[in-house]
What does this fold into?
Amino acid sequence: MPSVFPEDSVGLVSPQVLHFKEPLPLACGRHLADYELVYETYGTLNAERSNAVLICHALSGHHHAAGYHSVDDRKPGWWDSCIGPGKPIDTRKFFVVSLNNLGGCNGSTGPGSRNPATGRAYGADFPVLTVEDWVHSQARLADALGIRQWAAVIGGSLGGMQALQWSISYPERIRHCLVIASAPKLSAQNIAFNEVARQAILTDPEFHGGHFQEKGAIPRRGLMLARMVGHITYLSDDGMGEKFGRELKTDQLNYDFHSVEFQVESYLRYQGEEFSGRFDANTYLLMTKALDYFDPAAAHDGDLVQTLAPARADFCVISFSTDWRFSPARSREIVDALVEAKKNVCYLEIESAHGHDAFLIPSPRYIQGFSRYMNRIAV
It folds into this structure.
């Protein structure tokens, strides 16, 4: 019987859950007494357990990176273009692990989970997390799966920050580190965009100080505005112009402030409304703060070379020409520091009109370069 899925798909996949009872100390000074991580796997772990690859997700990502949860799914996982037979992260070769980070809203313990101390949802009481906290929790997941060393840790955007942190926190447990469309720390402009998004949520009357679940409310307007602001920064000027231009949604102008007249307005409102129906407001606040706080070189007075000195991995850094949120210049900062630290590093700067979102889009040169690097990894 022929498969209902494409030949290069991992097909049907099911999320799995691991419960951890050992307390996890956090950078904020608090700890999680126990917690759960939801994850998916694709491919087969070899006998030597040497072919495992960890996928780290970005701000709004989750564990469902590839394949389908049912035959009725209209869309596959968020990085299906890069994970599967014959794709850059080839599941005929690699055993791929993709998780939903702590603080997420897709199954792992987060603000929407039950707080054992109160019996109610954590809400605003969930602790603030950092990229380093996530990496420590991911190391425990690797332990539980019997994976002593990752063949590669891979991530785009906020996921790239996690991959970089892995090479610093656990240098002996990662052979290859792929940092895609990322940065060694956020610029002041990026922190500013995140703060505008957070204020949209925090000032929504339905936010209720973060305990909106107890009120049976959802701060939809705040989430919608936060997503609209974020989405603008993920696209490039050329990309938006090519996709929408100044096309009107209606035949004539209404000369008011309430009508949706331009196609780009309609697109942003749709993106915001869809996001507000599936994402948790407290998770959005946590994820943006983790982005803001990421600065591993701060422990060495801003010296990124010294910070990366303990790393043992080989590196692949990929950037995109029109990505102004995490520009190629930020990737080159990482590359320059790695070169000065005498690490093996491959750098790819891809021409793309898609802005920051380019790391999710399978453009030919991106896929070719990504595949060539992954093909070099011995398992």
Remarks:
- The chain has a mean pLDDT of 95.
- The radius of gyration is 21 Å.
